[in-house]
Amino acid sequence: MAVTGERVAARFQAVVGSKTELRELYGEPSARALEKDIGRLDEHCREFLARSPFMLLGTSGAGGRCDVSPKGDGPGFVLALDDKTLAIPDRLGNRRLDSLQNIVENPHVGLLFVIPGMNETLRVNGSALLVRDEELLERLAVEGKRPNLAIVVSIEECYLHCAKSFLRSGLWDHEKFIDRSTFPSLARIIEDHRRRPGTSDQEHERTVVEREEQVAEAYRCLY
C-alpha cells in the first residue's frame, strides 16, 4: 500500500503531508463544531436511530486495508442497548466478510446513519465486537430469522452532521434521480468484469442472463 501511495503522490506537485499544513489551510474549528460531539446517545440521537433504515460502516484492517459497507433494514434496525452501546445485525450478504474480518483485526469503526428525505446525518465512532449472544440475536430477528451475529459498538464519539454535502448533491431531489435503464444492471457489470479473453459474445450474453436470474432471486430473499 505504501508503494502505491508513493506512486500516486509522485504525480502531484503540492501534497499536504502534515496536520500543521492542514490547519494552516483550513484554520481552527469553532467551539460549536467541537462541542456537538457528546460521546453518547441522548434522546435526539436515539430518535434518529429509531427512524434510520440505512447506515454505512467504515472499518480498517491491521494492515490499513479499508472498507465501507452499507447496512440497511427497517427503521430502527440498529438497537441502542444503552447510551454508549449500539448493536448492528449482520444479515445475509455476499460472504466476503470484508468489514467483519477488519473488525477482528482492528476494532475501530466509523458509522454514518441516514434517514431518507433528511439532509442531516448521525455520525458515531467507536470500537466494535462481533457478538453471538442468543438473547441479543433474538432481539435482532426479522421475520423469524436471526442474523448470524451482531456488531456491537462501544461509542466514543457521537454527533449530528450538517446538511451541506446532501444539499450540494441534491441526493433526495427526485428530479435528479437517474433513469435506471440508462445504466447497466449489476449482473451485466459483474459479468463484464469477470469476462475471460476468448469468450464469445453469445456465451457472454448467456452468462449475463443467468446472472440476472441469480441476482433477482437473491433480491427476493432478503432474510
What does this structure look like?
The chain is of the alpha+beta class and 223 residues long. The chain has two domains: 28-169, Roll (Pnp Oxidase, Chain A), CATH 2.30.110; 178-220, no CATH class. It has helices at 2-9, 19-26, 31-35, 43-51, 98-105, 134-139, 164-169, 186-194, 201-220, and strands at residues 54-60, 66-72, 79-82, 85-90, 108-114, 121-131, 149-161. The protein has a seven-stranded antiparallel sheet, covered by helices on one side. A hairpin with a 5-residue loop joins strand 1 and strand 2. Helix 8 crosses helix 9 (201-220).
Rg (C-alpha, Å): 21 Å
Q: How many structural domains?
A: 2
Helix/sheet category:
alpha+beta
**Biggest beta sheet attributes:** 7 strands, antiparallel
Q: How many E strands?
A: 7
Strand content: 15-25%
CATH architecture of the largest domain: Roll
Shape assignment: globular
**CATH fold node name of the largest domain:** Pnp Oxidase, Chain A
Main-sheet strand order equals: 2-1-5-6-7-4-3
Q: Are there runs of 5+ residues with pLDDT below 50, and where?
A: none
CATH superfamily of the largest domain: Electron Transport, Fmn-binding Protein, Chain A
How many DSSP H or I helices? 9
What is the end-to-end distance? 36 Å
